[in-house]
Amino acid sequence: MENLLARLAVKHRFTTMYKPNTNDLVERTNRTLCSMLAKEAKVHVNICDWDLKIHHVVWVYNTTHKTATGYSPFRLIYRMEALLPIELEVMTLRTATTMRLPLDESQHHRLLQLNELDELQLKAYQSIEIAQAQQKKVFDKKVKKKEFKEGDLVMIFDARHHRKAYKKLSLLL
After folding, report:
1. pTM (predicted TM-score)
2. Residue 106: how many CB atoms within 10 A of its CB?
3. Which are the contacts of 169, defined by CB distance < 8 A and separation ≥ 6?
4. What is the block-wise mean pLDDT of the chain (173 residues), using blocks of 10 residues?
5. What spatial distance separates the first Cα and last Cα of the chain, rounded to whole Å?
6. Domain ranges of the chain
7. What are residue 164's DSSP bridge partners?
8. 75 exposed, middle or buried (CB, 10 Å; 0-12, 13-18, 19+)?
9. Running DSSP on this structure, what letter comes out for residue 95?
C-alpha cells in the first residue's frame, strides 16, 4: 500500500469517520451540501423529502465551477463538462460532433482528451496550492506567536483521561 502511494505521490492522511470535523475538506463540502439542501427545502414546501433531492444537489455541486481549482469536479474527473439531460433531447453542436466522429478519428480524439486531462488536473493542483498558500498567509497573520521559557507554567491536555494538567515547562523537556 505504501509503495503504491509513494509511486502515485499521494500523501496518506488518516481521519475518523466518527468525527468528520477532523477532515476540513469533508466538513466544508458537507456544510455546502447542507446549505444547498436547505435552499431546496425553502423553495419546495416539503422538507421531509431531502433524501429525494440529494442526487440533484450533488449533481449541481459536482458540475459547478470551483474557484480554488478553476474547474468543476466533474471536469477534473472526466476531462469534459457534464452533458446536461436537455442536450440529449435537443441536439447541440457538442453532442452532434461527438456522435458523428469516425472510429479512428475518435480514438485519436480520445488520446488528445486524456493528455488534456493530465494538463487540466496539473493546473487544478497548482491552483489548489496557490489557494492554500493564500489561506495560510491570511491565517498566519491572525496567529499570535507565544514563546515559553524554562520554568513557565504550561497546561497539558491528557487525551487518554480527558483532563487538563498544569506543569512547569522544565518537566516537559
Report:
1. 0.47
2. 13
3. 148, 149, 150, 151, 152, 153, 154
4. 76 68 76 86 70 85 86 87 71 60 62 76 88 90 81 73 62 45
5. 36
6. 2-146, 147-173
7. 157
8. buried
9. H
